[in-house]
Amino acid sequence: MWQVVLSVIAGLVLVWLVLVLILWLEQRKHPGRASLTDLLRLAPDVVRLLKRLASDRTVPVGVRISLGILMVYLISPIDLIPDFIPVLGYADDALVVAIALRFATRRAGRDAVTRHWPGTPNGLAAVLRLAGLPASGTGG
Predict the structure, then answer these.
(1) Count helices and strands in the chain by DSSP H and E runs
(2) pLDDT tens readout for residues 8-59
(3) Which of 7, 58, 85, 140 can bridge 110 by disulfide, Cβ–Cβ 3.0-4.6 Å?
């Protein structure tokens, strides 16, 4: 039992670290980048953002459905690459989360993401940049 719990915790930490690495690499391309501290706190903020987007009835139904599918995929024991394969087993989960995050934030729009963002302004700018959305201005 403890081995399963420790494996799940290790997997979540690895997914979090891969997400931070992806965002850090993206941030290096842009001036005014978020600090490492902002990036490390980003994963819990992203989880809260996705939960808020999924429960917002003003967000397009397709976005809410895709977020539901993402949650089912992450909870499901069936993966593209089995989790027992070191590193790669959890890397596919991180990749699926990054793709789903980009899709959901782009479809929901900058205004919805900004409205539901629970974290720092630098973290929001990083998420918007990763999604390919303008960090400032109008529209969504």
Answers:
(1) 7, 0
(2) 677 767 776 776 676 666 666 665 555 566 666 777 888 888 889 989 999 9
(3) 140
Q: Rounded to two decimals, what is the model's pTM? A: 0.65
CB 72 within 8 A of CB 100: no
| Helix %, strand %, coil % of the chain (to 5) | 70, 0, 30
Residue-wise pLDDT for 101-123, tens only, equals: 888 888 998 999 999 999 888 78
- pLDDT of 138: 45
pLDDT in the model for residue 140: 41
Rounded to whole angstroms, how far apart are CA atoms 95 and 98? 5
Of the candidates 109, 108, 94, the one whose C-alpha atom is nearest the C-alpha of residue 66 is 108
| Tokens 């690895």 -> residue | 14
Q: Are 126 and 40 in contact (CB under 8 A)?
A: no
DSSP letter (8 states) at residue 91: H
Contacts 24+ apart (CB under 8 A), 52-57: 52/116, 52/118, 53/104, 53/105, 53/108, 53/112, 53/113, 53/116, 56/112, 56/116
Q: Which residue has the tokens 């302004």?
A: 121
